[in-house]
Design a protein that fits this description.
The protein is an all-alpha fold. It has 18 helices and no strands.
Length: 447
């Protein structure tokens, strides 16, 4: 196994065609690890200095903003990955900038409307949705920062569209680093239990504005007066982005349905067991995200340049890289999962091991399938992928409804692996049928 891994590493390092994605992935993985470290330090400070209640409020507001941002960004954080490389390839940097600027203003406008509605409806959100009327002030405060969170989300992805690898790595680190800095600074200056909330919201504001400034400067360095411009109507941007919004929403539903259903039908203890199993099984997610973050704009660039053979070469190599970087971790979780659950979380959590194994298998299916979602979105097949994801989500919710009441966390895990397998396998079949090639990778079947 070690010898095979060594050969694969040397193979990747010597591949000049793939070097851009390999280098970018390394930067992205490093940035995500550093951001996770900053986040862990911040969590420890909040837990020890402010207590569990404040930790809970911060988590709740973070989830609220994450959900709100899905609907304010409207899928443009994915579509911009396709549109910027497409316009750079076909037209010019100025044309790409015009599309970016129009998308940006669209997101700002929708965010301001959404934030205003949430601000005036904060009491209703706190009372009726979360059954916590005492938190209405915090939801009103968070509503003011919806626009900044949306800017942060859009610009982080837009930087990827320009293939600014190191700046993208910086953008990944900014929110957590600003959060930690503000947490320490405000903690010294203010004697308030709201310091962690102010720090989190302040970090979103700074990261969002700085991302905007970075994009403006990056484009202005590339634009020339003689650039040809292909104006893109707002309606067309919506047409491309809305299927991606649906996909993002369905992914959010698939990720949260198991926990929600367990909360409805089983005890809080079982929810805790399942949450830990999910956290361990998805340890490889940051690797997939890092590799996909570099591969996605390259997919768009190659597809719209008509370089289909090179497109599939890069997609296949990306899947191979994902396989060899994630499989050892997933295999380790299957072999040592019981020990990890017992030693780190306590012996009672060993009961989550069967669910952990199923969830790991689901992640393995994700691994060998490659960048299915990004490939579909970057090659103009976003509507087909939306339909596949909707079907997978319906299967996920249905299976959870039938299995969770009787089988608990095992039922939730079965629903998860089934839905993940459905969307990946169906997408691979569609790609094979349309292009005559596959983007998945498995050592025993490489064709």
């Amino acid at each position: 196994m070690i010898g095979t891994l060594r050969r694969e590493v040397l193979n990747f390092l010597s591949d000049q065609k793939f070097s851009e994605i390999l280098t970018g992935s390394a930067w992205a993985i490093s940035a995500r690890l550093l951001a996770a470290g900053f986040g862990l330090v911040s969590s420890i400070i909040i837990a020890r200095s402010y207590g569990a209640e404040v930790v809970g409020i911060v988590a709740l507001l973070s989830s609220f903003l994450q959900l709100a941002t899905i609907f304010t960004v409207l899928g443009t954080s994915t579509s911009i990955l396709r549109l910027i490389p497409e316009h750079l390839t076909k037209y010019s940097p100025t044309s790409a900038f015009k599309v970016y600027r129009k998308t940006l203003y669209m997101v700002i406008g929708i965010s301001l409307i959404t934030g205003t509605l949430c601000f005036f409806g904060s009491g209703l959100i706190a009372d009726r949705v979360f059954a916590k009327p005492q938190l209405s002030f915090y939801f009103a405060l968070a509503a003011v920062f919806v626009v900044f969170k949306s800017l942060m989300s859009l610009n982080t992805q837009a930087v990827r569209g320009l293939m600014l690898i190191r700046i993208f790595a910086l953008m990944l680190i900014l929110p957590q680093s600003f959060n930690l800095i503000f947490l320490i600074l405000f903690g010294i200056l203010l004697a308030s239990m709201n310091v962690p909330i102010y720090a989190m919201l302040g970090s979103f504001a700074f990261a969002g504005i700085l991302g905007w400034v970075i994009m403006e400067c990056a484009f202005k360095k590339r634009m020339q007066p003689q650039d040809s411009v292909q104006l893109m109507p707002t309606r067309e941007i919506f047409t491309i982005s809305l299927p991606m919004l649906m996909t993002a929403t369905m992914n959010f539903v698939i990720g949260e349905t198991g926990v929600i259903m367990l909360g409805m039908f089983r005890s809080e203890t079982e929810v805790g067991y399942y949450a830990i199993a999910v956290k361990l099984a998805t340890l490889t997610t940051f690797i997939l995200s890092a590799i996909n973050s570099m591969a996605a704009p390259k997919f768009s660039e190659l597809f719209h340049s008509g370089k289909i053979d090179e497109l599939f070469y890069i997609a296949k190599r990306s899947a191979k890289l994902i396989f060899w970087t994630t499989t050892p971790i997933l295999l380790g979780l299957v072999i040592f999962g019981k020990s990890v659950l017992s030693i780190i979380f306590g012996h009672e959590f060993v009961i989550a091991y069967p669910a952990l194994v199923l969830l790991v298998l689901g992640e393995f299916v994700n691994s060998i399938s490659g960048s299915t979602g990004y490939f579909m979105n970057m090659t103009g097949n976003q509507s087909v992928f939306r339909n596949i994801i909707i079907f997978a989500t319906i299967c996920n919710v249905t299976l959870n409804l039938f299995l969770v009441p009787s089988k608990g966390i095992l039922g939730a895990a079965i629903a998860a692996i089934t839905s993940v397998s459905i969307w990946n396998i169906t997408t691979l079949i569609y790609i094979k049928a349309k292009f005559g090639k596959t983007i998945g990778y498995f050592p025993l079947y490489e064709k």
